[in-house]
């Protein structure tokens, strides 16, 4: 499946509407705010604030009550000084119970007021409602919350990250199409889209194309599922991970039998920074022309995590995703997380290569 070759060419559509990059407090040491490559962003997604069950808010930003808020205020100030929007990330993985209770009929009004006060206190331009997962039973309260926020703050930016879709079961229902009228961005979290799962062969973390019955994930197939659900193309974004996945032996590339292999490292551990510093060498890299992503293949376990197959994003795959977004009239992209793409040992101006690629591929 892999092989040499370019990442395509041809006509490219108009610039995307957004590149929304997440900056999270627990990774602050990886990327000093003063070093952010602002040209590659339109929105900074500042994470994270979490909902308490009673509708109050936890504002430690995954640092501390005293350390988190000053960092968030610095990031808001820098975003505005550089002409970008600052959006607060609300929730995230593991916060489902807090969402369910805070958005309930008994707590929703207090929750909305606390969110409005948060925006006023920090200067946020909007809210990223990262409710994971939105179960069918959650949909009425999620809808009511989004409507209440939109009514109370009609000028606020509202964004919604949504899950990638298994191409073998592509129906997501009409709910997200109905929600689109309330949101400025609906962004597919199209990363970590493969694992040692029943019925799967080894596959990429964030393939653009090339999905099949035994490798049923790609940006293309997930985007189509949300378009089919009624989400307008101009409100739909794709996800780009500044991290990859590390597979254990015997898997050495995509499209093989799992045969006891597992993904032994991904987000945080397999940051783009760590991949470049601890794994990358041109001799190990292959460009997958079907999936439109690169990967590293090693004959024996390699690096700190002992990988034989590393799936990741690079400048070439970002260019391919940029063309896809522009040629399909999509809205833009989210990045999880910009902290993981910083290369401090490189010369000034070359330390955020993926953000530079995003600027060129999506925004020029």
TrEMBL record:
All residue ranges annotated as the GH18 domain in the record: 17-364
GO cellular component terms, semicolon-separated: extracellular region
InterPro entries assigned: Chitinase_II/V-like_cat, Chitinase_insertion_sf, GH, Glyco_hydro18_cat, Glyco_hydro_18_chit_AS, Glycosyl_Hydrlase_18
Signal peptide start and end residues: none
Gene Ontology terms, MF aspect: chitin binding; endochitinase activity
Keyword Flavoprotein included in the entry's annotation: no
Pfam families linked to this entry: Glyco_hydro_18
Keyword terms: Carbohydrate metabolism, Chitin degradation, Glycosidase, Hydrolase, Polysaccharide degradation
Protein's GO biological process: carbohydrate metabolic process; chitin catabolic process
EC number, as in UniProt: 3.2.1.14
Reactions listed under catalytic activity: Random endo-hydrolysis of N-acetyl-beta-D-glucosaminide (1->4)-beta-linkages in chitin and chitodextrins
First-tier enzyme category under EC: hydrolase
Family under the similarity heading: Belongs to the glycosyl hydrolase 18 family.
UniProt cross-references to PANTHER family, sorted A to Z: CHITINASE, CHITINASE 12-RELATED
Protein name: chitinase
Organism the protein comes from: Chondromyces crocatus
The organism's taxonomic lineage, starting at the top: Bacteria, Pseudomonadati, Myxococcota, Polyangia, Polyangiales
